[in-house]
Structures are given as structure tokens and as C-alpha cells.
Automatic annotation (TrEMBL):
GO terms for cellular component: cytosol. Residues 2-328 form the Far11/STRP N-terminal domain. This is Far11/STRP C-terminal domain-containing protein. GO terms for biological process: cytoskeleton organization. Belongs to the STRIP family. Residues 410-776 form the Far11/STRP C-terminal domain.
Length: 798
């Protein structure tokens, strides 16, 4: 891959792709069934078509559909579901092009939401889940009869598709929206936020469906649609990355912290990708022709020769250890364009001069010099604590807690302190941890009732189960996963009832299955990253609780296993058939699918958006799990992630490479001097692209804070802090209770207030135990009748 990939990272893909990805290619026959069912409804009402109806007639028809959705007969009720599904699909039978279908879909979704269809479909989904049949306990002799297929989940798929299409449509704003549509969008957001206060919110219901699916209690759940709906609901309620950055700025202002005038996503979009480091496999393909020329004047022409892919001038041809000076030049990351006609077999113009005259370089391209670093360096608070050691050395005493006084210290120390103070950055997590230690004396303090807070409260009792279930599905959907008898079946909502009989049908099903797996990875990585980001912004201990359970569920080796493949082929391979994507498959003339239809879909510089999006999300999740955690960083070393990550640098995309380089940076100090010496190009890329932390000697391995014997103690201490936080803030639920108690911290016996009013205590009815009531007469005789008490002595003052 010789050029950068054309990719723009965002919360999600464009609207058309997000809508089409909820459907599999095997669902295509169902579109026609929905159309025929709705046309029968119009015919029964003497209507010609939906588009010709007035607003009043359209509302009257929808009210008739609502009444049909409330009938007791299941088959009749499902026909009404088909009618609603056809409406949210944009009445494609009456559309001549895709843009018209998209417009009608948006108009119908707003109309259906206004008339209450969204809540009705939610209730039908709850009812369908509760009545969903479970798989047979015994397997018959004919195993094929027990393999779940697409028709088994028809009702659930239809209901979830309606909800997903409405959520995806209503959450996106358009400049052409009317005032009524803007108001309906606000009402939709408010309704979803208020739904978190319900006894079982829709998000929790979907999470429970994921757990139910992974526990083998139900094989007929359309899990891809469930995960897509869950991801889009979280994206709608919590907000995307732009909204997250604005919330972070507002929160820092509220805490009195200075703002860092940087938006990471915007900065990464302006960065260029690095040239991948040369691997040993690439060196085996070096041709022996050509003669290596010396470097008479310097490195510029030498680099031009390298950029023309002339392997005969490879600096590693005769040595396993690349020269440091040459590697520094190559770390400009492809900023020097190649020149035609300059190669190792020709005499360079610099060689002909023999140093006697200035060569003519007018025909050579200019080297683009990178000015400055893309990130503002940061310094932590404990980086300034070296002042006490300096005071002890030069003055003879220390000032504990004083990090500003520089009297009597040498000028280099004062200059160092000014630089550190200039780049000092205090994360919100430090203030949150400090506040937790302060309010431990006030255990009845409750957190703010913001949206992430309410979501965390609702998820808290079962977060470990949710994380395990998501990672199980991610493992089953990974391209490197091997089929096992005890693994979960994620293909039940893509496999047709009958197996394909032709080669083209088999090829089509194979592409559909691969596409199906990729969408699983996309939705799971998106929702896990979204939860981690918002929980960390709300409170760092909420983030730590979720991240710990991800680590306990082996998320780190799972992500590394995902990247232990030909990642370049994964992000560039497009498992899709454009003519079968919705709505192209139902609008216009239908073309016949042949074997030639699958050729020419992969372009080197245009990646598959969802695969590159998923890969970046998994890298970001891995970075969040290991950041400032030495024990988890050692897991990267133990699982030998360095060669896996180094191979991933072949993907020429700036954001992807940034997070790969971050993961390499955190473990560099543990990889040894030999690794650093033989990977100087990677080290240069880290220095150039990753943010600098002052006093962070990542390149030398002299970190005295990373002692191996502290790793287990660090994790145990963090877990104790998190459990104390949950117990204080959420009562029995947070302390690992059954989840049936209240979210009020007063339910914890240690924090229950004590009644001090004597009159109120005397009025309370006390339930005495049975053993006491049986021995009450004996107690009276022993403690009252036969006991002599000197009451005067009690009243006397000593």
C-alpha cells in the first residue's frame, strides 16, 4: 500500500450505509412481501397509493394500523407490523430513485413518531421477547433441522428494524427540516432520556437480550439488529464525539481547570500517515541487481532513492542494524515525494561533481519540512515533585507540599520548573479521585442525575455479564476466530432456510456472511468505546469499573487476536454487492448477479469504512484499558503484541497509526534495548506523532515507578477504591447485591441515619423475636422482680 487511505473518522457512516447494513442480502424477498401486504391494505380502503393521499387520509390510515396492532390475533397483528415496516422503508414501490425513497422515509418516520408508533412498537417488542420460544433441550438425529435460520426470527427482526430505522432517521438533523420536525426531534431525545427512569429501559432490555443470546437460552434472537439498535440508542442518548468534546470543555470550566485548545479528532484528520517500517519478510524480496552508491553530499538524494522503492539501496541490505542517522531522515513519513528516473543504477548528479562544484538541484522536488509537533506537550503534577530532591541536594532541607518556591535553586532547575508549569495538565480524573477521598467522610453524598449517571445506575447490577456477553460475540465474529462446537451461533439471522444450489448463490452467501460478521464487530466496538468515553467523563471510577471487567473478560488478548491477521487486506476488502444493498435492490431495474459482479470492488486507496472504523475503535479501547496501568501494559508484552502492532503500521491511515504507535510507546521500556535499536524508524514515528509527556522516559526504560512487584497491588487497590465508590453511591446494587434494592445509598446499613427523637422511638412498633416472647416471663422474673436496683445511686453525681 503506497498511498494514504481516503477515510474520515466519525460517529457513524453515512445514512444510506447505516440503513442498508441492518439488512442481510437473504432478507431481499421480504421486501416484496411487505409491499404486497401494504398494497392490499390500500386496496381495501379504496386508495390508489400512499403518495396521493392527503395528510388527513394518511393519518386516518395510520390510526387504522394502530388499532390493528392492538388486536389479539398474532397473524393479523403481524400484518400491521409489515405495514409499518413498509412505511419506514420509504414506500419504495412508489419511488423512482433512491433520493425520493430517502425523503419519503424521513417524512414517514416523523409522522409515525408523532402518532405514537414508536412506543407501540416498543411494547410489542417487549411482548415478543417474553413470548419468544426457547430451543429444544434435546437434539434430534437430523441436526440440520435444528439449525436456526432467517424465518425463525421474522417477528423480532421486523420490530427491531422499525425501531432502528426510526432512531437512525430521527437522530440526524437536516437543514431542510421544518420547525415541526425540529420540535419532534427534541421531543424524541427527551423521551429517550426519560426512558432511563423506567423500571426496565429499552437499553437494558437490549442488553439483557444480548446476555440471553450468549447463555444459549434462545437461538432465534436477531443479534446483529439488536446490537445495531443498542449502539444507535446509546449514540442518540449520550451523544457522539463532538458532543463529548463540548461536554468535556464545559466540565473542565466547572471544575476551574484550564482548557486545552485541542480537538484530538480534528488534529488527527490533518496528519499524514507514516511509511510502514521495513519488515524481515520484505527484505527477502530484495532484488540483487543494481549497485549501491555512496552518500557524497548527504541524505536528501538518498531519501529520494528510498522513496522510489529502490530496494537495492535499502539500508538494511548488508546489516541487521539500521544506521541511526538514516532512520531519522526516513521518519519524515513520506513527506518527500518520489522522483522518476532517480534509482540506484544511475549515476547521481552529485557523484559526478566529486565535490568540486555545487550541483544543480533545480530539477529535484522540495522537501516539505514539518514545523513543530502536532500535539501540545503535557506534564503531570508529580513531575514537579523533583523539587524536594533538588532542595535537599543544594540547600539541605525540603519543603513538603511546596512546588513553587525556587529560592536558592540553580537557574537550570528554575527553567525546568517554568517549562513544566507551562505545560502542566490536570485531568478531571485526578480531581474526581481527590474528591472521592474527601467525601468519604460524608457517605450520603449522591452523584448528579445526569444521563450517563442514570445509565450507569441502570447497568450497574449486570455490567460484568454485559461485558462478557459482548466480548463473546466479538470473539465469534472476529475474522481470526475458529469454529467451535460450544461457540455461539451468530449466523442465525443471515442463513436462508435452504442452502444455495449454484456457485453464484454460494459466493453471494459467503459475502453476506463476511459482511454480517463485520457489522457485528463495528457495532460492538462502537458501543463499548462510547460507554468508556462517557463514563470516564462522568466519573473516573465508573470508567474503571467497566474497564476492569473488560480486562477480566480477556479483552486485551481478544483485541490482539483480532489484529493478528493481514490487517491491510481486512480494511481494504469490501464484502458488499452494491446492487443488493437496500434500497438499490428494490428501486429501478434489477440486474442479474453473475460471478463478474464480484470483481473490481476492492480499491487500494478507498478502504471499507466499517472495517477501518472498527479497527480504530478497537485500538482506542485497548489504549484506554492500558493507559497509566503498568500491569495491563505488561499484558501487551506477555502476549507479544509488538510484532502484531508493528505489522499493523502497514495500514496507511493517520488515526489508525497514531493509536498503534501509542500502544507501542507504552511498552517500549519493557521491550529492551535491542528492540529499540533495531526499530528506530518506529521510534522516530512515535516521537513525531504521539503526544510528548515531559519527564516520560519511554524511550530509555528507566521508569522506576514500574516495578513488577507493584502490579498486582496496583490492581487490587484500584478495585478496592471502585467497590467503595459503588457501595457508597449506589448502596446494595453497587456493593454486589442482588440488584433488587433501591439506588439510594441509605439502603446500606452502615450509612443508615439514626433516629435521635425519644418520642418517635417510643411510638415505633418493635417486632420482638419469637424466642424472646417465649422466654419473656422468665426474663421478667430474673431481670425485674428478683433484681435489686439502687436508683438513688444512678441519680447521684460522682
Amino acid at each position: 500500500m503506497d498511498c494514504d487511505l481516503e477515510f474520515v473518522y466519525d460517529d457513524s457512516d453515512i445514512y444510506e450505509n447505516e440503513i442498508s447494513e441492518q439488512y442481510t442480502y437473504t432478507e431481499e424477498p421480504e421486501f416484496q412481501l411487505n409491499k404486497e401486504s401494504f398494497e392490499k391494505l390500500l386496496k381495501s380502503k379504496d386508495y390508489e397509493n400512499w403518495s396521493s393521499l392527503s395528510n388527513e387520509n394518511q393519518r386516518a390510515l395510520i390510526m387504522h394500523i394502530i388499532q390493528t396492532l392492538d388486536v389479539s390475533d398474532k397473524s393479523e397483528r403481524f400484518e400491521a407490523v409489515r405495514w409499518v415496516l413498509y412505511l419506514v422503508q420509504g414506500v419504495f414501490g412508489e419511488c423512482s430513485n433512491i433520493e425520493e425513497q430517502k425523503t419519503k422515509c424521513r417524512t414517514n418516520c416523523f409522522l409515525l413518531y408523532k402518532l405514537g408508533i414508536f412506543n407501540i412498537v416498543q411494547e410489542l417488542l417487549m411482548m415478543e421477547i417474553n413470548s419468544s420460544p426457547t430451543p429444544p433441550t434435546a437434539v434430534s438425529a437430523d441436526k440440520k433441522s435444528n439449525i436456526p435460520s432467517l424465518p425463525d426470527s421474522l417477528e423480532l427482526r421486523s420490530l427491531i428494524t422499525i425501531l432502528y430505522t426510526m432512531v437512525e432517521t430521527l437522530r440526524r438533523d437536516q437543514h431542510s427540516d421544518s420547525d415541526e420536525h425540529v420540535k419532534l426531534r427534541k421531543d424524541f431525545f427527551t423521551e429517550l432520556e426519560q426512558g432511563l427512569n423506567d423500571k426496565e429501559p429499552l437499553i437494558i432490555t437490549l442488553f439483557n437480550m444480548v446476555c440471553k443470546f450468549c447463555s444459549h437460552t434462545s437461538f432465534i434472537l436477531p443479534m446483529k439488529k439488536v446490537l445495531l439498535l443498542l449502539w444507535k440508542l446509546l449514540l442518540t442518548i449520550l451523544g457522539g464525539f463532538k458532543n463529548l468534546h463540548k461536554k468535556m470543555e464545559t466540565r473542565r470550566q466547572d471544575m476551574g481547570l484550564p482548557l486545552l485548545q485541542e480537538n484530538p479528532i480534528e488534529i488527527v484528520r490533518q496528519m499524514s500517515a507514516s511509511a510502514p517500517p521495513t519488515s524481515a519478510a520484505d527484505l527477502l524480496d530484495i532484488p540483487q541487481g543494481g549497485k549501491r552508491k555512496g552518500r557524497k553530499v548527504g541524505s536528501i538524494l538518498y531519501e529520494l532513492e528510498i522513496d522510489t522503492n529502490n530496494d537495492s539501496t535499502n539500508p538494511q541490505e548488508k546489516s541487521d542494524e539500521p544506521p541511526l542517522e538514516e532512520e531519522k531522515v526516513t521518519s519524515i513519513d513520506g513527506e518527500i515525494p518520489s522522483v522518476d528516473g532517480v534509482n540506484g543504477g544511475e549515476e547521481s548528479p552529485l557523484d559526478k561533481t566529486n565535490g568540486q562544484q555545487t550541483p544543480d538541484l533545480s530539477g529535484l522536488p522540495r522537501v516539505k519540512v514539518i514545523s513543530g509537533l502536532p500535539w501540545t506537550p503535557k506534564a503531570r503534577k508529580n513531575d514537579v515533585e523533583f523539587l524536594n530532591q533538588v532542595r535537599q541536594k543544594f540547600i539541605g532541607f525540603t519543603l513538603p507540599g511546596d512546588l513553587t518556591t525556587v529560592a536558592g535553586l540553580p537557574e537550570p532547575t528554575q527553567d525546568s520548573l517554568k517549562i513544566l508549569q507551562k505545560h502542566a495538565y490536570t485531568p478531571m480524573s485526578e480531581l474526581q479521585v481527590a474528591r472521592e477521598s474527601e467525601i468519604s467522610k460524608c457517605p450520603l453524598t449522591i452523584g448528579k442525575t445526569e444521563i450517563p449517571e442514570r445509565l450507569y445506575q441502570a447497568m450497574l447490577p449486570h455490567i460484568p455479564q454485559y461485558m462478557i456477553a459482548l466480548l463473546k460475540i466479538l470473539l465469534a465474529a472476529a475474522p481470526t476466530a475458529k469454529a467451535k462446537t460450544d461457540s455461539i451461533n451468530i449466523l442465525s439471522d443471515v442463513l436462508p432456510q435452504g442452502m444455495p444450489s449454484t456457485a453464484v448463490a454460494s459466493l453471494k452467501l459467503g459475502i453476506d456472511v463476511n459482511r454480517h460478521r463485520e457489522i457485528f464487530v463495528k457495532s460492538i466496538s462502537g458501543l463499548i468505546l462510547l460507554l468508556l468515553k462517557h463514563f470516564k467523563l462522568n466519573h473516573v471510577y465508573q470508567f474503571e469499573y467497566m474497564s476492569q471487567h473488560l480486562v477480566f473478560a480477556n479483552c486485551i488478548p481478544l483485541v490482539l487476536k483480532f489484529f493478528n491477521q493481514n490487517i491491510v487486506a481486512y480494511v481494504t476488502t469490501k464484502n458488499m454487492i452494491p446492487s443488493l444493498e437496500f434500497p438499490a435492490c428494490v428501486i429501478g431495474e434489477k440486474t442479474e448477479i453473475t460471478a463478474e459482479s464480484f470483481d473490481g470492488m476492492d480499491a487500494n486507496n478507498i478502504p471499507c469504512w466499517r472495517n477501518l472504523f472498527s479497527s480504530i475503535n478497537l485500538l482506542r479501547i485497548l489504549n484506554k484499558l492500558v493507559k497509566w496501568k503498568h500491569s495491563r501494559t505488561m499484558l501487551l508484552v506477555v502476549f507479544k503484541s509488538a510484532p502484531i502492532l508493528k505489522r499493523a503500521l502497514k495500514v496507511r491511515q493517520a488515526m489508525f497509526q497514531l493509536y498503534v504507535l501509542k500502544l507501542l510507546k507504552v511498552q517500549t521500556k519493557y521491550l529492551g534495548r535491542a528492540w529499540r535499536k533495531s526499530n528506530m524508524k518506529t521510534m522516530s514515528a512515535i516521537y513525531q506523532k504521539v503526544r510528548h509527556r515531559l519527564h516520560d522516559d519511554w524511550a530509555f526504560g528507566n521508569d522506576v515507578d514500574a516495578q513488577p512487584w507493584d502490579f498486582q497491588q496496583e490492581e487490587c487497590a484500584l478495585r478496592a477504591h471502585v467497590e467503595r465508590f459503588n457501595a457508597r453511591r449506589y448502596g446494595k446494587i453497587g456493593s454486589g447485591g442482588s440488584g433488587g434494592g433501591s439506588l439510594n445509598p441509605s439502603t446500606n446499613d452502615d450509612y443508615t441515619p439514626v433516629e435521635n427523637n425519644l418520642q418517635n422511638l417510643l411510638k415505633e412498633e418493635v417486632e420482638l423475636p419469637i424466642e424472646f416472647r417465649k422466654s419473656y416471663d422468665t426474663w421478667l422474673e430474673r431481670e425485674v422482680y428478683f433484681s435489686n436496683t439502687d436508683w438513688d445511686q444512678l441519680l447521684s453525681i460522682p
